[in-house]
Design goal:
The protein has about 280 residues and is α+β, with helices and mostly antiparallel strands. It contains 8 helices and 9 strands. Strands 1-9-8-7-6-5-2 form a 7-stranded mixed β-sheet, with helices on both faces. A hairpin with a 2-residue loop joins strand 3 and strand 4. Helix 2 runs antiparallel to helix 3 and helix 2 packs across helix 6.
């Protein structure tokens, strides 16, 4: 059973139990003060209030979306009525990028960044009716929204970024040395409409602005990177335990074969192979 039905961790970017560890406050940065709140404030109360606010924003957004013609992908209404205020609930003060970034002779039209600093993490917002994994039908974009942010991360010193169409939000990491896509996907529609508070609490604890770096320089020390490294170490320990378990199983099977009454010849061969060679 999936504990967090509206959240999907793809490509091993985080360990499967990271979300449970976040909710249990077993990882660094999970006190109220770590989110910029008064230490006397109960974090669960804050998250519950924000979930109520997000639900109201979603309802207004859906009403406005319904009024759009079918040919409108909804970029403006998605941005202004939903994603900007929603991300503000998570501590973001987005800045619009008036010009595309230029890297290695290529342009990356990432819509926003996560703060005033020019090196703040990239956040790309597209219309609700634009799929993250497909090229937009108009505008002749070079890359699909997800690929745009991923390639930008891979070609710069940015480590973390966000791409969203308002329905789905993905947290991406630089994957220069990874062959397959790796990201965390939040199904915002299911989270809000199905009242999945636990999923929203996990989103808040993982995606709040204080989790991301301020810019490129502090990216190795941000909380997201610490969670990523924690997952790598945890995965390494799991693999070590699996390897030890496999070795033990092989030994048990081998000893079982050797002890079988009909395997006298096998025992003799094993015994002779253990004899030291004559000098």
């Amino acid at each position: 059973m999936n504990t967090f039905p509206s959240i999907r961790i793809e490509g091993g970017i985080f360990s499967p139990d990271l979300l449970d560890q976040l909710l249990a406050a077993e990882l660094p940065g999970q006190k109220a003060s770590d989110f910029g709140l008064p230490s006397s404030r109960r974090l669960t109360d804050e998250i519950a209030a924000l979930f109520a606010d997000a639900s109201q924003l979603w309802e207004v957004f859906q009403h406005r979306l319904e009024r759009l013609p079918d040919t409108d992908v909804g970029t403006s209404v998605t941005r202004d009525s939903w994603m900007l205020p929603f991300l503000a609930l998570l501590g973001y003060e987005l800045r619009y990028n008036p010009r595309a970034y230029e890297v290695d002779g290529l342009t990356f039209a990432v819509s926003h960044r996560a703060g005033e600093d020019e090196e703040a993490p990239p956040i790309h917002i597209v219309g609700y009716r634009q799929e993250l994994g497909r090229l937009a039908p108009t505008g002749r974009p070079r890359l699909a929204p997800h690929s745009l942010v991923q390639e930008y991360l891979n070609r710069t010193d940015h480590v973390w970024g966000i791409v969203t169409n308002g329905k789905t939000l993905r947290l991406l990491r630089d994957s220069t040395n990874v062959r397959k896509q790796a990201y965390v996907e939040f199904d915002l529609q299911a989270m809000i409409e199905e009242r999945r508070f636990q999923d929203f609490a996990a989103l808040y604890r993982l995606l709040h602005r204080t989790r991301l770096p301020r810019g490129m320089a502090d990216a190795p020390d941000c909380l997201l990177e610490k969670y990523f490294q924690h997952s790598l170490e945890q995965g390494g320990r799991v693999r070590d335990r699996l390897r030890d378990g496999v070795e033990e199983c092989i030994k048990i099977l081998a000893n079982g074969f050797l002890r079988h009454p009909e395997n006298t010849e096998l025992r003799n061969r094993a015994a002779s192979s253990e004899q030291p060679a004559a000098s």
